[in-house]
Design goal:
There is one protein chain. This protein has helices at 24-35, 45-55, 104-120, 155-160, 164-174, 186-202, 210-219, 255-260, 262-276, 292-299; strands at residues 7-8, 13-18, 58-66, 69-81, 85-90, 100-101, 125-128, 138-140, 144-150, 179-183, 222-229, 232-242, 245-253, 281-288, 304-306, 309-313. The chain is of the alpha+beta class. Strand 3 and strand 4 form a beta hairpin. The relative contact order is 0.15.
Length: 325
């Protein structure tokens, strides 16, 4: 699993290794490198291992060494779908990822090593959600957008920061006397998963396994905020916390949540909760460009920022298309 690729340069020797993620010392060294780079929560080894634990999609990753020092890192999950086939994802079930390297030369060599690793694992496709674009790889920035904004200094300012029409919806929801709870316990997880599963089924989307949510909760700074009406859970969101930002990652609402405006209350209350936890930014995650969720987030006053996605396709193979539309 950690056999080197051994790539030589004129100036120095670069050694590419498949990361042994069962070795805590190696994981700690990788994570220190990630923390030193412009990175995100999906670059860390904990995310890769949570995806493997929760879904069975193998955690991997390529490390570029200069001597004994890490010079680059490409987090990977070997993803297999009976519908869409096999691919390497950086990172699996994530909205961001991609190559991290101290310079473009190292990044380019990581790309070459990734192509070889893909061939070894019968993966005709590599998808990287951000990062450096190696030569010969494709790039797109018109499929998804991210949404990020600073949190306000107090509760009233946060409400006033929401554009007028959306603020009116939040106010209507706040009048419905719903109860808010935040936690990580089994009851929080059960309520969240039941609501999430109902929500995505109503959209015709496959439901992720509950083990995935447990694996992420158990390995990350995360919590679940649930909205109840008359004691019944109607909306719930699992959020990640990283580098001063909260990211509502998996959430949904029941049919009842619509007329209660429970989703609107949920996101507003999450903003208040995150600020009290010490967060300064609200990361509304990604949405497909011009989709319903994209427009919903714009209604909250968030400006869409196009996301940069990179991919490689093995010569002579058909391009993978997992677009739900």
């Amino acid at each position: 699993m950690n056999a080197p690729f051994n790539l030589e340069t004129d100036a120095t020797a670069l050694t590419m290794q498949i990361a042994n993620l069962a070795d805590h010392t190696i994981c700690e060294a990788i994570d220190r490198f990630v923390a030193s780079q412009p990175s995100n929560v999906f670059h860390y080894t904990a995310w890769l291992k949570a995806i493997e634990s929760g879904t069975g999609n193998r955690a991997a990753g390529l490390v570029a060494y200069k001597g004994t020092s890490i010079a680059g890192w490409l987090p990977l999950n070997v993803v297999h779908s009976p519908i869409f086939g096999r691919m390497l994802a950086s990172s699996g079930f994530a909205v961001e990822g991609g190559i991290l390297a101290e310079n473009d030369f190292v990044a380019e060599q990581l790309g070459r090593a990734a192509e070889e690793f893909a061939a070894r694992n019968n993966c005709p496709t590599i998808e990287a959600r951000g990062g450096f674009t190696p030569q010969g790889w494709s790039t797109r920035n018109d499929t998804h957008c991210g949404f990020m904004s600073d949190l306000a200094e107090d509760d009233e300012a946060q409400l006033l920061a929401i554009p007028r029409k959306q603020r009116a919806e939040v106010r209507k929801g706040l009048k419905n006397e719903m109860q808010i709870s935040v936690g990580r316990a089994e009851g929080d997880r059960a309520a969240h998963y039941a609501i999430y599963a109902e929500s995505v089924r109503n959209l015709g989307t496959p439901v992720f396994p509950g083990d995935l949510f447990d694996a992420v909760m158990d390995s990350h700074d995360a919590d679940i905020l649930t909205v109840r009406h008359e004691g019944v859970p109607v909306a719930s969101v699992l959020s990640l916390y990283h580098d001063g930002a909260v990211m509502p990652y998996w959430g949904g609402g029941t049919f009842t949540a619509r007329h209660l405006r429970a989703n609107e209350v949920m996101y507003y209350e999450l903003m208040l909760h995150a600020r009290k936890r010490g967060c300064s930014r609200f990361d509304f995650g990604r949405s497909k460009t011009n989709s319903g969720p994209y427009k919903f987030k714009k209604n909250w006053g968030f400006e869409p920022q196009p996301l940069h996605y990179v991919s490689w396709q093995a010569p002579g193979t058909e391009k993978r298309d997992a677009d739900p539309t």
